[in-house]
Fold these 3 entries.
Entry 1:
Amino acid sequence: MIDGLLQAVPSVGPLTWVLIGAVAYTIAAYWLDAEGYLPESISVSGPITTIHTRRGRAFLNWLAGPKRFWRAWTNVGLGATLVVMVGMFFMLLQQGRSILENPPAPSPVNEPSNVLVIPGVNEFLPLSVAPEIIAGLLIGLVVHEGGHGLLCRVGDIDVESMGLVSFAVIPIGAFVEPDEESQRTANRGARARMFAAGVTNNYAVTILAFALLLGPVVGSISVASGAAVGGVLPGSAADDAGIDAGDRIEMVDGQAIADGGDLEAYLANSTEESVSVTLGDGTETTVERSLLVTRLSAGSPFDRENDAGVDVNDTITAVNGTEVRTERGFREAVSGRETVSITTDDGETTTAPMGVVSRATSPALPGIGGDAADHPLNASGFPTDDSFTLLSIAGQRTLTPADVTAALDRKAIGEDVEVVAVVDGERRTETVTLVKDYRDGREGSYLGISPVSGYSGVGMSSLGVDYYPAAEFLAMLTGEGQSLLGATLVVLLLPFIGAVGGAQYNFAGFVAANRNFYEVTGPLEPLGGGVFLLANLLFWTGWINLNLAFFNCIPAYPLDGGRILRACVEAVVSRLPIEDKHTATRAVTTSVGLAMLACLLLVVFGPQYLK
């Protein structure tokens, strides 16, 4: 009975627990404040707590000594901040407009809980790197607000107090509280530099962190040999053999494996139905191979909308009545027939043509006039808008896209070739005249066929694992082949690059899920696993500081961008023949701020409520 009641209770998500904790914290904090247990330096406003201190002002006065250097430093930062401010303004306007006109489907990327930089609540920020994320956040907050305080003293603006802001017990900000009267009497240049100082320091920390990360740290990390197992498909041969995500396959049947491609090539040519696998930790296991269907491409003749079709996660047991358990066995069983019967482990048998699922390339061929009627397939009677199953070209059987390329190799422009395909369930044989290949950098003849997927769109694996792109992520971290802007964008996207379509997996640093795929071999090898900890700290410090800088450049009060906007508007309005300059300034800054707030709300909540 108790178990039944517990199962009936709905699961509580991380965000709900955060809200419950915030309410409990607020009640406790108000009670402590009412009873006089909290010192005057701590103030509570709901779950937001601020801690004020007057200490450190003497240090700021000392640090502000070389005023000419600090003015020059923040003048450079102010220029960069103005450029980013303008970019953020137009980017948010465009994003808000796009969401209003065509709201995107809800996805993990635009889930409101994933806007919060809270490990465990934000699904892209794992708890395993929470210390590094919090450290990066604290560094960003300290240098940001420290910059404001430093430039206050450089501009002869008094500082009332400094401190930290927390959401319950989680630090979310820091602050420097300038003296209001002193700030009003300071010149606009001093105030603008003071507002830009925090963002400037965040840029500096980002550059330093990424320079260290992409230089000596990542230079000491290399990809370990072996096939990196990112995931294991349920019911696959690897699953049955006890292989898990995070394992690394180093050897198969005594043969060393360099990477996932090497393993796939070995399995594609092996006829052994049972193979011995050695993992990176020395564990040996035996895999009893079986053909798991991993993919059905659009247009596959085996994809049926009824119970007789082949489905993903089915296991192929026989082809044309002959048992098959390997990729090579499947290829040999289907190579001699245009139509084959596939039997799956649920006892169903599906008969369909076996070839390459194909489509015609774009009918507009620049090299031959751009007229759809001139497309070689269209001219011969094949469809140019629907997929079909290609069986052979010039008498050569086509089972894979590589077979299509081989069949057309060395064919001359103007040569006629016989093309056999199944179109809308009907076998058709047509003679197609090859044309000149119009594509850039290509020479030779062109048929106009774009292979989509081999083996009639049925993807299969006798092992059943997904490979983790360890080498690709390491290359992204180093900025290999990227411009500075491109490398920056890639780094910003890495924590959720899998969700935005850039990769199959996200990269949150060198964590438990992927650390087995890397090893320390460079100049920092004596540090051992500490290199991974250092890499995570630098990665998240740079990532958070860059995001803090960009966010604070939004031209909306009370962000730094909003304060800089006000200073700029005041400078412009002061030169205009307007009597009420204060009202004009407030009208401009308020309008821009409200527009930015509306766009931010659309970005965070629009996909959930407008779709």
Entry 2:
Amino acid sequence: MKLSRPVVWARAMSQNRRQDSEISRWLAIIAILLVLPGMAGLVLGVPWLVQPLPTFAPARASGALLLPLAAVGLLVKLSGHRRWAQLLAVLCGVMAIAGAWIALRGAEAPFDAMFMQRLGPEFVAGAGGLPVSVAVLFVFYSVALLLLASDRQSEHTLLMIGGLASLQVATAGVLFTAQLAGLVDGTTVQPLRAPLHSLLAALALGTALLDRVSRREQLSVAPPRWAPVLAGVSSGLVVMVLWQALMAREAVQLRARAAITAEAIDRAAQRQFRSIQRAVGRGAAYLTASRTDEDPMWSTSLPRLITETDGLRHILWLDSTGALLRSASPKVVPPDVLAALQAYVRRSTVRRDSMFTAHSTTLLAGPWRLALWLPVLSPFRGPTVLVGLIDEVEMIRLFTDDASGEFSLRVLAADTVLLQQGSEASAAMIFRAPLVLGARRLSVEVSERTGLARSPLPDVVLALGLVVSVLLALTLWLQRRNWQQALDEGQRFRAVFDTAFQVQLLLDHTGTVLEANRAAGELADRAPDALTGLTFWRAPWWDDDAVTGERVRDRFERALAGETQRFEVELGRGRDRALTMDFSLKPLLDSARRVTQVIVEGRDLTIRKRAEESLREISALTTMGRLAARVAHEINNPLAGIQNAFLLIRGAIPTDHQHYRFVGAIEREIARIAAVTRQLYETYRPDQTMVAESSVILAVSDAVSFLEQVNRGRQVRIVTDMSRAPTMVPVPDALLRQTLYNLVQNAMDVSPAHGTITVCAVQEEQECVLRVADEGPGIPPALLERIFDPFFSTKDRSMKTGGMGIGLALVRQSVLAVGGRIVVHGRPLGGTEFEVRLPMIPLDTGVLR
């Protein structure tokens, strides 16, 4: 018989598993060997082993511990120890995240700092924990290894492993190439630099994961599932690195232009300052040689010099006491400036150190802080000084106007901004240079102006590169998709198997399973491919029952003889609930009317059986409820007459009568009977609406409010917790209210005075859980099995509200009728707790509505 294509693939994959393990094992060993040089360099203090190439980051002690741990985890997985591999994967991920956290906080890793101190101060600065890029790579790896070591590996899991491994290989490869070419230096991704050893080890381990995933896929010429992710991420990262390199190049060029601009401003300002020095110096020399202090230069040449010299504001002549002799300024000198000059002259006269020396000084007051100090030994005045006041802001402004087209400029004195060209919002500072004008210490900041046109090359490269990356990934994905579509066309038989709700198997003439659908795998609690090759009567769902297996084998022999066989069997061992399965064996005949194969179909009848039982429970519940309500109604009518007649008689009996004490006893008994009948009618009256859904919160609120009023004499407190209760449950409102009424009333009956009853409702997965707990004496263990029997009660018959023994029986029937369950257990501190679990999914009877 010709085997189907999936069987051939399964056998081919099993034959390649040895090669798969060997390749992955060698790659893990290579990863460990790659880390050894860095570890040796850290231990021996050899810098070139720690950092073989300057464009890569130095190796870290934390990375030297992380990488062997990651490789050992893969080796342990290949040896078959899944649990240990999962533990090592988790430990690897935790170490990677902790190292990155230390690095991001700027803290020092103890082991890194200890080893880096032996290598030199330039290595100590890098001892700040594991590089973020390496941490991300091994977080990808640890998650992929954890999935690879899981017990069940579905197609979705394999796809996730391939995607994570592709991200790891792509990121490590691009970082390795970019750092090797020096494209990372000076870019915004420079903090992501990683050690050479770590990147090579990450490449080896990621390749090992991809090798394992690719060999588990169906053999074909199509690209593996992770190929689009690897191609797209790799090309995208290459484009991003190239874009960052172009942006860094643009930034370097911009900084160079900014430096040239700042240098040009400095040269021009120095040249203008020296020009002012020479001009004022000529005036000082002329005064020294003059024979009169009323020289016409004060009214002609010096004012013209101030007007024609940019930056020169005033020229003043002061004697040795600071008195103003003459002024060539067209405007009045501010008083604070003159006072500052006079104070400086007096200090200089006292010190006698700068009175006769040409220099510049910085004033402490006035709008112009820079002053040229030139001594003049006048024949008429004696020692004097000629002072030139310079407006440095105006002088520098002449040379910043030309550069403000491309840059925003600021001139600062310490932190005070003296001049700003381009006042609009600008980008961050590009370059800063000192500007020294005599005694005045300034600085020039150059920033790029916003909105300025820049080179479009980086953005064009980024856009085109990302488009190419997307197209490359899309091309590989389309190729894979087209191949998958072709494969689906050739696997129609398999598709029919997998989409069927019932169990379907294809057996050969020996009873061996050739094909199994997804439902069969779910019934066996394993992958469908794991059933291939098993004998039908030894399948996992028979629970190793030899008797059942022989009977199933006998039915197979009959089917092999040409008879269609059908039988029901209950599967319950090792399951939460028993399953009722209906199996049919249908022979397949060839052209010669010989049986060659047998098709097995198995239908789950559990829901239908449960629905039939639920319908019977509901019918019984309805009958009992109607009977109870009718009994209550029939009792209530004569009881009303008795109560009215007694009220008339009670008034005629004097209080001193010898039997007057029986009046209260009769009244109490009538009240007790009335309470019991009212409870019976309110609890079990039929609900004509039978609403499909009911509100848990409203039902609990109504039951608690009513029962607190009825039992207010017992002084019992009811505490409710509806914070996690579902809004609606798919059960009839009457059944829910009857259940709550009985459970809370029972708790009232057994609670001591001033006791507390707790009622809570929570949603746990697909169930609504109601819990009613009391502080009563509890239920003896011997009676736990009987409390749900009809007409069995542990209450005192003298109690006014109970003792009938049908409340808990009806509660159990109500809960079972909607597919739920009820349990009772004692509380550690005393009392009893009833727990009702109602399904949040409506009970499906399988009937088409």
Entry 3:
Amino acid sequence: MMKLFYPFLFLLISFAVRGENGNAKLMAQLKAELARKSVYDNQKERVIAGLKLELERCASNDLDRKYQLCNRLFEEYKSYQYDSAYVYTQKMIRLSVAMHDLPKQYESKIKLGIILMSSGMFIETRDCLDQVDPKILDPKSKRLYYRLKCVFYAELANYNNDKYYAEHYRQESHKYLDSAIALAEKGSFEQIMYKAEVPDTAGQKLSNYKYYEELLYRHKLTQHQTAMIAAALADHYEGDERMRLLYIAAINDIKSSIKETVAIYKLGRNLYRVGDVKDAYFFMQEALNNAEFYGSRLHKIEIASILPDIAANKILITENAKNKFIIYLLTSLIIVVIISLISFIVFIQLKRLRVKERIIAEKNSQLEKINVRLSEDARIKEEYIGYFFNIFSEYILKLEKLKRNGERKMKSQQYEDILALFGQINIKKERDHLFRTFDRVFLKLFPNFVQSFNALLKPEDQIWPRDNEVLNAHLRIFALVRLGITDNETIAKILEYSVNTVYTYKFRIKTKALVKPDDFDTSIMDIKVVTEP
């Protein structure tokens, strides 16, 4: 009861300071809690250490007890550290297999999918979901399964952002969310939270925030639950109220040692929007530290897309403040220092300012290059994630159709028809289709690639696709190099060549290039992604 009481008391106090200085006090409290975060982390580590010790002392044949302890360790690590959470889900899977307990095997797979999803690993999450049969799950595990399905399709819709596929994924997400709501206990935290995620109006993407308000202001929540709901509710407000909710979410995340957090990232982003660059940079750095500690690649990419801009503005503001101080100092010295000494000081100070301006210019140039590379990487990943999901979906449908036809003909003992059915599979045609699709996606990103590539060669050595080709073998090898795949063995596996063939192709072209062989790959990497208008 006391664990639930303190977050509720904190909410009452936060309402009391809602006046003019309310957010300033919450800002001070957040910074104070950040200074104490090691205390909260040590508390969590002690709990984890106790569970690990209990697991070590557990009898070797008490598999069920070991499974329960690994499950508790997973729950502790789930929002704290990705790698450790992953390790204990693997142990749960092994223990459930050893017990021949299929429901526990499925439960372990679902929990593995939860942490894979938190790290942005869509394909791996889908693999976990495909291995689970929800029909034999207990109500709690089935609710987790449908909830994970809902989140998977929602995130997929956000990344795909295609008019047709994104809308389909959103419909799938809402379907599984309805199933999770039906399985949740009436009036429970989970049911109300799930209801909040159902749009209030048909076709609307935003959640129904009234349910979030009901949870935050009328229910007793844990610190972690308070942080989750406050961060979600903040998306429905602007100005001081949004900032107040984000402060509440970030403070509760720190107190519960949650590292897989978006609250402090959202807070830093909003502070940057209102011009508080110094605090925005401070909180963004903390968000990056959390993402690195947890091991979330998705959050690191999000933070990396905005942190360089904040850092550049912070440098400029700091330098402007220094310049103002110098001007003030020089103005004061005019009264007491002779004109010649003042002139000398001004000369020295201006010389220092020019050095600093050069440093700032160099830093800005570096940051601009980093931003361009991050933007290109994000665009490439976005295009190819959508490409691979579409390809996988096509092949799954083909395999499903082949399976149904094969089973039907097996039952009717039509063995010759089965052989004919397999004869319809043209591996070369499928591979050519895969390569052509890869080529089209690549040239969508790099429409000038072929021209830029041939500009590095003499006219007589240039390589152009034939009329029936998009890219040929030589161009496709260096297309993979431009995507960052430089290992000959990896390229050989993708294109189904021998390693020697890939090496020979690359060697021949580099020896004929107008640039040095060592500089050829660098010139390929300098070919830019063309941004869509």
